[in-house]
Amino acid sequence: METTLDVQVDTVLTSTARDAIDRLYWEMEAEGYRAGAPSEEVEEIDRLVIEGGDQGAVCFKPKSCVKCGGELSYQPYVKERSYRSFTICTRCGRVREF
Ligand SMILES: [Zn+2]
């Protein structure tokens, strides 16, 4: 299980995006969540949804930021039975829950 922020992010972040990721992390931690998907299967499905690909028929979110076209970073959080996942634009820092 990946637990650090940097492991989730494999693209270069702008400082705005880094701030947005940090803010989300602290907000979620304050609510008792920790970074990570509940299982590798869930993480894999989420990545496919974000990236489109073969799961395009069920893809309801854009692959890139609707605001600036930047690449999206996948940020999953879990708390007991609760699971929330977000995308954060690596360019403008726009956060979306999906
Ligand atoms: Zn953006």
List the helices and strands and how they pair.
Elements lengths: L4 H4 L6 H16 L3 E2 L4 H12 L20 E8 L2 E8 L5 E3 L1
Antiparallel strand pairs: 1-2, 2-3, 3-4
The chain binds zinc ion (ZN).
What is this structure, in a nutshell?
This protein is α+β, with helices and mostly antiparallel strands. The chain has one domain (5-97).
List keywords for this structure.
98 residues; alpha+beta; four-stranded antiparallel beta sheet; globular; binds zinc ion
Which regions have little confidence, pLDDT < 50, spanning 5+ residues?
55-60
- Average pLDDT confidence is 82
What's the number of helices? Answer: 3
What is the string of helix and strand elements?
A: HHEHEEE
How would a textbook summarize the main sheet? 4 strands, antiparallel
Total separate domains: 1
Describe it for me?
This protein has helices at residues 5-8, 15-30, 40-51, and strands at 34-35, 72-79, 82-89, 95-97. By secondary structure, it is α+β, with helices and mostly antiparallel strands. A four-stranded antiparallel sheet has the order 1-2-3-4, sandwiched between helices. The chain binds zinc ion. Zinc ion (ZN) binds next to loops.
